[in-house]
Design brief:
Number of helices: 12
Number of strands: 7
Keywords: Cell membrane, Kinase, Membrane, Phosphoprotein, Transferase, Transmembrane, Transmembrane helix, Two-component regulatory system, Virulence
Catalytic activity: ATP + protein L-histidine = ADP + protein N-phospho-L-histidine
Mean pLDDT: 80
Structural class: alpha+beta
Strand order of the largest sheet: 2-4-5-7-6
Strand content: 5-15%
GO molecular function: kinase activity
EC number: 2.7.13.3
Subcellular location: Cell membrane
Number of domains: 2
Low-confidence stretches: 312-318, 471-486
Length: 486
């Protein structure tokens, strides 16, 4: 027959290997953090069994209580770890309360009735029954694990409770088996043998539970991945449909541009033909008439250029800029002649005309910007009010300022001026489409520049253009300096 110490040694070795196994499982499955509690329970049981092995035939009262309490603490950790693992309410503090009651009752029994081993066996049975009942309840209400696995574990726990109750019943019916003994003897080896079988069975059940948990987690992840793949496919289909819609819209836009271009060119061709006929019919026209005919020709050429650049989708895809060195004095002279032809040149005042070395831009676009700004200034000023144009180089930027003494822009509307078709609230009495400033901002933007509009203190508006120097990257907006007081 196996003696008690040999049985304790076997059970200690088994508990130690299981504790190590659970620690390794927890290290490799960190996402299941509850495993560390279960592993700690096996460690506590192994330590308690080791203390049993180390004590002599006549242990002290403190050792009798301590050794048993360490093993009981392992049961508390098992019950709490199982509840955590199955996602239920923790039972740690219930176990601690029962453990405290166990410790007090055992301490009192060891001090006052040290030879009455029966009382301590009954108290231990009561504690074991409560802990096993908590684990049985945890498994009974769980729905995350397979039913057969839960009921096998419940049966295993119930068997251990039954063995504990049987031991108490035998001690109660045959008290002579433990009479006059302070500790357990070889007669109780069978109880530790069935405890050893319980630990092995409980370990196997927990291993299967962890395996099922990992399997279900993997299944859930696969399900989530499947949903994500479906969503991504749907989004891909929507994106493809959106791209097809955009391609169709671009095609329709190009068709519209070609149609508008054709419709604009037809009246322009008629105007140019009429201008040419006037030149033929009037071989020696007066200077004023000749000046007006040249103005018509220049305006038609400029409108044709704008159509070629902005209403042709194919050209816009290739690039709209025609970069060349700008001769500022020549540009100013052409702008002056343009307004002289319209009889408005006397109201213009050019100052600070500079010739920046190597300044490059699209001359026609730059001319269009300045002409549009001056035209706005003339339109919203009095019939005799002057318009100032200052062209200078500041901090490697070409700065063009157009100032007037007209109606100005309401302060709260300045940020909206330049939006397509937007006109200030105080311009209702004057014709316009709201495209002039918007076009200027686009043309300046092609040059990586900026356009700023401000109210003048004395009344009127300041339009300030900043254009980068010759080395600037035209795809990158120019740095706009701090606004000055006007």
């Amino acid at each position: 027959m196996i003696d008690l110490k040999t049985m304790l040694l076997l059970e200690f070795a088994t508990a130690t290997f299981m504790a190590i196994a659970w620690m390794l499982v927890w290290i490799f499955c960190r996402q299941i953090y509850e495993l560390k509690v279960i592993a700690a329970g096996f460690v506590a049981v192994a330590v308690g069994l080791f203390l049993y092995l180390q004590r002599g035939p006549d242990p002290s009262l403190l050792r009798i209580v301590t050794d048993n309490m360490v093993i009981k603490f392992g049961l508390v950790l098992w019950a709490d770890g199982l509840a955590r693992f199955l996602g239920q309410r923790r039972v740690f503090w219930i176990g601690v309360a029962c453990l405290a009651a166990q410790g007090l009752s055992w301490s009192a029994a060891v001090i006052y009735i040290p030879e009455d081993l029966a009382f301590r066996i009954h108290a231990s049975t009561a504690f074991t029954t409560v802990m096993m009942a908590l684990m049985i309840r945890t498994l009974a209400v769980d729905r995350s694990q397979p039913r057969f696995l839960r009921w096998i574990t419940i049966a295993l726990l119930a068997e251990y409770v039954g063995a504990s109750l049987l031991q108490s019943a035998l001690v109660y019916l045959h008290p002579a088996t433990v009479a006059n003994s302070r500790v357990l003897s070889d007669i109780n080896t069978w109880y530790f043998f069935q405890g050893h079988m319980f630990i092995v069975g409980f370990f196997i059940c927990l291993v299967f539970m962890v395996g099922m948990r990992l399997s279900m987690d993997l299944r859930d992840r696969n399900t989530a991945l499947g949903r994500e793949v479906s969503i991504r496919r749907r989004l891909e289909q929507e994106l493809s449909a959106s791209l097809e819609g955009e391609k169709t819209a671009r095609k329709e836009q190009r068709q519209l541009m070609r149609m508008v271009s054709h419709e604009f060119r037809t009246p322009l061709a008629a105007i140019r033909y009429a201008s040419d006929m006037l030149s033929v019919m009037l071989p020696n026209p007066e200077e004023a008439v000749s000046r007006r005919i040249r103005g018509i020709d220049e305006a038609v050429s400029r409108m044709t250029m704008l159509i070629d650049r902005f209403l042709s989708g194919e050209r816009q895809e290739e690039g709209v800029l025609k970069i060349e060195t700008v001769d500022i004095p020549v540009l100013v002279r052409e702008i002056q002649q343009h307004f002289d032809h319209a009889g408005l040149g006397s109201r213009l005042s050019f100052t600070g005309v500079a010739r920046p070395p190597g300044f490059r831009a699209d001359v026609e676009m730059l001319k269009t910007v300045i002409v549009n700004l001056i035209d706005n200034a003339l339109k919203y000023s009095g019939e005799t009010d002057p318009v100032g144009i200052d062209i200078a180089v500041r901090d490697d930027l070409l700065v063009i300022e157009v100032t007037d003494q007209g109606i100005g822009i309401p302060e709260e509307e300045i940020d909206r001026i330049g939006l397509r078709f937007y006109r200030a609230s105080n311009t209702s009495g004057t014709g316009g489409s709201g495209l002039g400033i918007h076009t200027c901002k686009q043309l300046v933007g092609y040059h990586a520049g900026s356009l700023e509009l401000r109210r003048r203190k004395g009344g009127g508006t300041l339009a300030r253009v900043h254009l980068p120097g010759a080395e600037a990257d035209l795809k990158r907006p120019a740095k706009q300096p701090m606004a000055e007081t006007v």
